[in-house]
Every structure is written in C-alpha cells, then in structure tokens.
Amino acid sequence: MEHALLAIGAALAVGLAALGTGYAQARIGSAGVGAIAEKPEVTGTIILLVAIPETIIILGFAVAAMIILLLK
C-alpha cells in the first residue's frame, strides 16, 4: 500500500507541475505574440519568458525521482 501511495505522489508531482507549466506558457505565449506584433525587438525577451516556466516541470520531475528512489 505504501508503494502505491508513493507512486501516486510521484505522478501528482509531475502531472500537476505539467498542468501549471502549460497554463503559464499559454498565458505568456499569447501575451508575447501580441507584444511581438507591436514591438518586434522584444522577441528575445519573450522567448526567455516562455522558457522560464519549464523549470517548474523540471523541479516536478526531480521531486518525482526522489519519491521513486524511496521505493527501493
């Protein structure tokens, strides 16, 4: 039973992080396209801002890996 709960915790760590990342990137991406349409010189900044939320999923994966290591 304990292994099942750890597996569910690992899945939630990655799944919820992915949902949060997708939500953030959707908002930033749509606002970024509007900003680039008005001022093309902000393209580099917008690309950076879209990439930043991806660290959330990397941290979620790291947490899931630590949880899975507890299974052994």
Structure commentary:
This protein is mostly helical and 72 residues long. It has a single domain, classed as Up-down Bundle (F1FO ATP Synthase), CATH 1.20.20. Helices cover 86% and strands 0% of the residues. It has 3 helices and no strands. It has helices spanning 2-38, 43-51, 54-69. Helix 1 runs antiparallel to helix 2. The longest helix is centred in the N-terminal third of the chain and has 37 residues, at 2-38. The protein is elongated, with a radius of gyration of 17 Å. The protein starts with a helix and ends with a helix. The mean pLDDT is 93.
Topology readout:
Layout: H1 2-38, H2 43-51, H3 54-69
Helix pairs in contact: 1-2, 1-3
Which features does this protein show?
single chain, 72 residues, mainly alpha, F1FO ATP Synthase, 3 helices, elongated
How far the N terminus sits from the C terminus, by CA atoms, comes to: 14 Å
Structural class: mainly alpha
Order of helices and strands: HHH
- Range of helix content: over 70%
Domains counted in the coordinates: how many? Answer: 1
Q: What's the CATH class, please?
A: Mainly Alpha
| CATH homologous group name | F1F0 ATP synthase subunit C
Major sheet size, sense and barrel closure: none
Low-confidence stretches: none
* Gyration radius from CA atoms, angstroms: 17 Å
Helix tally equals 3
Kindly identify the CATH topology: F1FO ATP Synthase
The overall strand count is 0
Beta-strand residue percentage? under 5%
The average pLDDT value, as a whole number, equals 93
- Under the CATH scheme, which architecture would be assigned? Up-down Bundle
What spatial form do the alpha-carbon principal axes imply?
A: elongated
